[in-house]
Amino acid sequence: MTNHYLSVEGLKKAYPTRDGKAGTPVFEDIHFSIEKGEFVCIIGHSGCGKTTILNVLAGLEEATGGVVIMNGREVKGPSLDRGVVFQSHALMPWMSVLGNVAFAVKSKWPDWSKAKIAAHCTEYLEMVGLGHAIHKQPAELSGGMKQRVGIARAFAIQPKMLLLDEPFGALDALTRGTIQDELLKVVQATHQTVFMITHDVDEAILLADKVILMSNGPLAKVAEIVDITMPRDRTRAGMHHDPQYYRIRNHLVDFLVNRSKTYAGGGEFEQYDPKRPPVVRPGLVDTSDAALAPDAVRPLTQLKKVVNQ
Amino acid sequence: MSTNLSFRAALLSVLLFACFIGIWHLATLPADGGAVSAADAEYAALMGQGAGKAEGFPTPAAVGRTFVHFLSDPFYDNGPNDKGIGIQIAYSLLRVGAGFLLATLVALPLGFLIGMSPLMTRALNPFIQVLKPISPLAWMPLALYVLKDSDVSGIFVIFICSMWPMLLNTAFGVASVRRDWINVARTLEVGPVRKAFRVILPAAAPTILTGMRISMGIAWIVIVAAEMLVGGTGVGYFVWNEWNNLALPNVIFAITMIGLVGMLLDFAFGVLQKMVTYRD
Ligand SMILES: Nc1ncnc2c1ncn2[C@@H]1O[C@H](COP(=O)(O)OP(=O)(O)O)[C@@H](O)[C@H]1O
Ligand SMILES: [Mg+2]
Q: How many secondary structure helices (H) and strands (E) does chain A include?
């Protein structure tokens, strides 16, 4: 069937309305895949169902239709294989910083000694620059520090895949930059597979291998998949010098501002097939409307097949 | 600034208390029309406490003497009808403690169950709604008939009245644990027992403690009434007994003690509450 590390097939979610009937699906016919070691960002306007998709991937929520397959097995329920960094950090305020991470580590390795757990946790807290704060209570930390504890907690259990829901959404730009750098470093070192929701275009370009663009809900779709073709060793300071950066950035912003509303198949997107959303590489072409020329990246034969269906 | 405020508040409290005593004193001055003759006052003083019994409401001075008298030897025991106030209060506290402990043992697990399961919430709700408004003393005849022991019946009444605030608060606290924390536990595949003790219990503890504090307040109110009813020992019985002796200063003394002990109990639960409250 597929040989992707993770594949999402025909995902659909409809919340019941107040009177118990099935409402209009928030999204339907969502298809995409993630390879091992890949960093995938998803961008879309608020309410298009990004968090819902992430919760389905995490196993915290059940889809109305479709499946998520990871490592050849269907995702059913949450698992230590998939670490989640929550939008609101979700630290437990009655435990210290170390206690929060230790709670996770103890869940993964129940047989470890206290000392081993503490050493392991400290290592990961140091990795996110919180070595000095391990005995503090969460209430004593700033928003950025709390979010870093959340990241350390998710990394410490060494999950096969990491799911992040707008982890830096509530932070000021400066703090966000620092933590992005840290995340970048850690991900480059560990080759972690990551699925991340963001609303920050620059963040997506800095971190992602590919960006999934979602059209507006309800009935949201995967509109496009944008390959970030810039070299992998990007840095926040240096990426602006790459000519690709502006082309990609313009493409993403243009999508969010102009095209996300109307992108629902049909019309000029006749050849749109939800099973194979167009893959575009705006970094490599000179025009910013690369979506209208998907043949730039997709073999023509495949396109024909799609149209003939 | 804040020390200044608390100092002024304390000063005002003392003043108010002095006013209260002053008014009380004036109101209970022997009133026989015009001026009080010296002989009358002397006569009243001579009669001491006996005067309080015979003539109307006791004076602050008489009540003050009663306080000194009882507090100078709170733990004497001269048979069934004459025990020190310390012993009486200890009896009451013992009953309250036993009933409250039993109620905790039932209310916390049951509250957990109700809070975790919408099915149990709905299934048990009618029973709780009917049982909750019943005055705990209304159970007394049934308790006496079934349990055949006034002491145990008192404990049962405390058990029943402590039950509801604890049960409802536990259920509410458990049901409203933040979704995020539950989701963290789920993604970490935490087992049910560990989840209950490491996540849900600490998260709901402040709400649960609030319920326990309310329960303790109610239990201390109810024990006095219950002991008046079943008699024998305890501070409630003491009040009733002194009323039968028409010894009003003793009654006022006992009332004050009931208030002070209730305040201390509430204070203790306030401390516990502070201990489990987390800053978010
Ligand atoms: N528990 C729920 N019950 C009903 N509707 C929901 C629920 N959760 C989310 N929704 C709806 O689903 C849509 C998508 O929500 P969400 O996944 O949070 O979007 P995003 O993260 O992209 O902003 C929203 O319109 C929201 O109102
Ligand atoms: Mg969201």
A: 8, 11
- Domain boundary assignment for chain B: 85-276
The pair of structure tokens assigned to B269 is: 């639960």
Fold classification of B85-276 (topology level): MetI-like fold (1.10.3720)
Q: Which ligand is nearest to the CA of A42?
A: 1
Residue A137, burial from CB neighbour count under 10 angstroms (0-12, 13-18, 19+): middle
Distance of CA A68 from the midpoint of ligand 1 (Å): 19
SS (H, E, C) B173-225: HHHCCCHHHHHHHHHCCCCHHHHHHHHHHHHHHHHHHHHHHHHHHHHHHHHHH
Cα torsion angle, A297, A301, A304, A305, sign: negative
The domain ranges of chain A are 6-76+208-306
Residue nearest to atom 17 of ligand 1 (CA): A49
Distance B13 CA to ligand 1 centre (A): 55
Query: What is chain A's mean pLDDT, rounded?
Result: 85
3-state helix, strand, coil in chain A (%, to 5): 35, 20, 45
Please report the ipTM that was assigned to this predicted complex: 0.84
pTM: 0.83
When the pLDDT of each residue in chain B is averaged and rounded to a whole number, the result is: 89
